[in-house]
Design a protein that fits this description.
Length: 211
């Protein structure tokens, strides 16, 4: 299963299924701006309840994106929560679920400082909570891609801008202390600038990405 950010009946994106056994691509649902969100980004997550969860970058009542669920048993797409300026808006990546069942994700805009936030979603309560607001000059702004969890239980990601050079940062998030610490500043001449996308945790325990 996957999502397309554009096209479909409402020109707002689709959720599709690909069957490799017979090489068929099937549209399962159409997104619609106000009720389901539009322009879905990132990947779908198979949650512990067996359903698919994902994010749209826009749409919803606030046109700030929605968190949606696709029920595989009855083929229905439903909006679970709305994003807003206070929570954070324009999520561009994917959700990640931890062992305790809680989900985390990123917004590229909004939040207290209007430079993006890290949010928590509790599926048992259907609650969406701003968990941490980015601070541009200190730990970066406009996080892109998705979080990745390290072997130490902490999360890692990158911001497109901010930091000392305003060319992006690599940060670490500790869910136990609810703190984000900058681990590195990107620099055009040495490490590249404006990183976007999701880091990859390799078998050697190191993280790799693109700038």
């Amino acid at each position: 299963f996957g999502v397309a950010p554009y096209g479909g009946a409402n020109f707002s994106g689709t959720l599709f299924e690909y069957d490799p056994s017979n090489e068929t691509l099937t549209k399962k649902a159409d997104f619609e701006s106000s009720s389901l969100g539009k322009y879905p980004m990132g990947s779908l997550l198979i949650a512990t309840n067996g359903n698919l969860l994902g994010l749209t970058s826009k749409g919803g009542i606030n046109d700030s994106g929605v968190l949606f669920e696709y029920n595989l048993s009855n083929n229905t797409l439903a909006k679970k929560k709305e994003f807003s300026s206070a929570i954070g808006k324009t999520p561009l990546g994917s959700l990640i679920q931890t062992e305790n069942g809680l989900l985390y994700g990123l917004t590229s805009e909004g939040g207290k400082n209007n430079v993006g936030s890290l949010f928590q979603y509790d599926p048992s309560k259907n609650s969406l909570t701003p968990y941490y607001d980015f601070v541009g000059a200190i730990n970066g702004r406009s996080p892109g891609g998705s979080l990745v969890q390290g072997t130490n239980g902490k999360f890692y990601g990158t911001t497109q801008y901010g930091g000392i050079t305003d060319q992006g940062t690599l940060y670490e998030f500790d869910p136990n202390t609810r703190t984000i610490s900058k681990k590195a500043d990107f620099n055009e001449s040495t490490s590249g600038k404006y990183p976007f996308g999701t880091l990859h945790m390799a078998s050697n325990g190191k993280l790799y990405g693109f700038a």
